[in-house]
Amino acid sequence: MWPIVILLEATGFHLVDLLTLKLDCLQKRDDGYWIVSERDKIKSVPISEDIYSMVKAQKIFIHEKFSEEENPEHFLFLRYKGKMKDRGRTYLQPSLIRQLNIFAEQQQIIDLNGKIFRFGASPFRHRFGIKKISNGASILDVQKLLSNVTPEMAVIYAKIHDHNLQVIWEHSHEYGAVRLDPITGEVIQTKILDQAYENNVDIDWLKRNLTEIRLEQGYCIKSPRTHCQFLSQTHEQPCIMFKCSSFYIDSSFLPYYDQQISMINQQIEEGSMHGRSRLVEILKGKLEKFVEIREKINTQSKVEQSDEYESSG
């Protein structure tokens, strides 16, 4: 079942198109990997190398499980569990959706209203369309990739993408944003608009590209016209090590620093047990900076929330 679900997410195909894919559905072209459906008319969608490898593995699995006589139409997905009379048949759409809904109940996947989420095939296609627009595809490109999608629906995908960008932008203004002093390396309070102004970054461009400039440990608030002077460095977290003036960290990165602090503490403990004093010394310096960042974000969050409460009172 899961390869089918992954392909729903990766291709935007109708569920019936996936369930009737043939063993020869993969194509390797000069411009990359593609998957092709020929149910009603030929439809092809570019896929990643990982998806290509997954489908190739599924093809090998079916070849090993079923003979030519058992799979005369060369389907990629056939039932191989359950009742003997069902073995070798294609999956039914209601059956697959039912299995997804059972999974939702078992894992307690809930919707915005707090109720158990009900799966359907269409939301996967809509999500595919939104992701394509988020990655720079035009409305026309999405219509070509998603057959039977109206221009109105494609416009809705674009509006949802714009809404998502606005949510991310608003979150970046939340409490607890900090940066590093480019001279001393001290963790100091900042605001994203101030940092953008200082680095000559256009605000409209910044709003549209927050996702693209998000790193693992913070944002890179740097103009796209400016070359990163630390790009060639192989050091871990060069933004922190070199006190980069474009580096911006808000409260959304707290889980990252919590995880890193926990992991470093464990590494220090293991290093101490094995007498690796130099490693422990290096790790402690890194730990101190990460703890400083986390504490400054938490402290600044409390101060700003308190100021907001007093001003509203």
Can you characterise this structure?
It is a single chain. The chain is mainly alpha-helical. The chain folds into 3 domains: 2-120, Intergrase catalytic core (hpI Integrase, Chain A, Orthogonal Bundle), CATH 1.10.443; 121-172; 178-312, no CATH class. Helix content is 51%, strand content 8%. The chain has 12 helices and 7 strands. The chain has helices at residues 2-11, 15-19, 49-65, 93-106, 122-134, 139-145, 151-172, 192-198, 203-208, 238-241, 254-273, 277-312, and strands at residues 26-29, 32-37, 43-47, 178-180, 187-189, 219-220, 247-248. Strands 1-2-3 form a 3-stranded antiparallel beta sheet. Strands 4-5 form a two-stranded antiparallel sheet. A two-stranded antiparallel sheet has the order 6-7. A hairpin with a 2-residue loop joins strand 1 (26-29) and strand 2. Helix 1 (2-11) packs across helix 5 and helix 5 (122-134) packs across helix 7 (151-172). The longest helix is centred in the C-terminal third of the chain and has 36 residues, at 277-312. The mean pLDDT is 77.
Write a concise synopsis of the structure shown:
This protein is mainly alpha-helical and 313 residues long.
Write a concise keyword list for the protein shown above.
single chain; 313 residues; mainly alpha; hpI Integrase, Chain A; 3 domains; two-stranded antiparallel sheet; 8% strand
Overall geometric form: elongated
> Could you give the order of strands across the largest sheet?
1-2-3
Rg, rounded, reads: 25 Å
What structural category arises from helix and sheet content? mainly alpha
Any idea how many domains? 3
Q: How far from one another are the termini?
A: 55 Å
Order of helices and strands: HHEEEHHHHHEEHHEHEHH
Q: How much helicity do the residues have?
A: 40-55%
Strand content: 5-15%
